[in-house]
Amino acid sequence: MQSKLPNLGVSIFSQMTGLANQYQALNLSQGFPEFDAPTLLKERLAHYSQSGFNQYAPSSGVPALQQQIAELVERKYGLAVNAEHSVTVTSGATEALYVAIQALVSPEDEVIVFDPAYDSYKPAIELAGGKTVHIALTAPDYKVDWQQVAEAITDKTKAIIINTPHNPSTKTLKQADIESLKVLLEQHDLYLISDEVYEHICFDGQAHLSALRDESLFARSFVVSSFGKTFHCTGWKMGYCVAPAALMTEFRKIHQYVNFSSFTPAQLAIADAMAEQPEHIDELSAFYQQKRDLLIEALAPSRFKILPSEGTYFLLLDYSDISELDDMAFCEYLVKDEGVAAIPLSVFYNQAPNDKVIRLCFAKEDSTLIAAAEKLCQL
């Protein structure tokens, strides 16, 4: 059989977590929390499962959860959306991204992505028959050159994918970026896929500049979010997409044949948690900023250059003063010889620069972060 994705193998996340397990290393590679989901969420999951809510949910989502999402959007971003027609619950943000791409992209369409990019974008675009146009962002600031974006747009360009806060660069788009993006979308009549899975994890008082804050931007957008990131339950694979009704109609046509519906007890449990403990979301930035600052302080005596983290639960380290190895080889060395698993940034590029930068995940217990930093400070 001829492969549809001949150049893809096992993901870097599976590789590094496998090595971490093999060498019993501290796993700061794959982006999942080491701590558990909120107690209320787990209690409600058990309650709904034991109470018989174990059959298919409506394909677009349990109405109670759709309504909570709509209320969250209005509370955070000031945009009133119709819960029934504009909100769809998905089995993780990756499914939402895949479905949005399939809904938009036709053969020979081009989609602009910013590298380093989340690794699901390109395969989904190629499976739709489209082509990714890569614009590389480089260390240390990973700023978007919007003139370069304008020059990359052709008559085949269909959409732009943004990710803010950005994984893996940890940067956030600023208002000037949003204004430049709007101009290009409107000038060329393009669509936007806005990957906002870390929307509630912004640091140092920065507001998250969601596509949902601007009605004209939202009018041409699929906005993707993640409950797994927000509620420390990545294994539940729960996410959602918000889009204008006309775009959501096309989204749902594909969603129903990808997954049909998502885990019913989890949807009901999340709806309750959002209604009864809204402070969990409101306090998330402060929660993770404490962990970011703890890791930065613990790494201060090291030979790494620490790049500023504006959002997400990741921290980038420049190791150019430590080793001449490329980043993949350096990460293999770290996990095998030093007992710390990290992620090389080059794997997120179509054509990687020579930056010597690795990514650490700080969604871990404080003791794990301190222990990992102690090892890294010995280099």
Automatic annotation (TrEMBL):
UniProt superkingdom: Bacteria
Cofactor(s) in the UniProt record: pyridoxal 5'-phosphate
A Gene Ontology cellular-component term: cytoplasm
InterPro entries in UniProt: Aminotransferase_I/II_large, Kynurenine-oxoglutarate_AT, PyrdxlP-dep_Trfase, PyrdxlP-dep_Trfase_major, PyrdxlP-dep_Trfase_small
Coiled-coil portions: none
Keyword Ubl conjugation: no
Keywords: Aminotransferase, Pyridoxal phosphate, Transferase
Domain Aminotransferase class I/classII large span(s) in chain numbering: 26-375
Alphabetical list of NCBIfam families matching this protein: PRK09082.1
Family from the record: Belongs to the class-I pyridoxal-phosphate-dependent aminotransferase family.
Full protein name: Aminotransferase
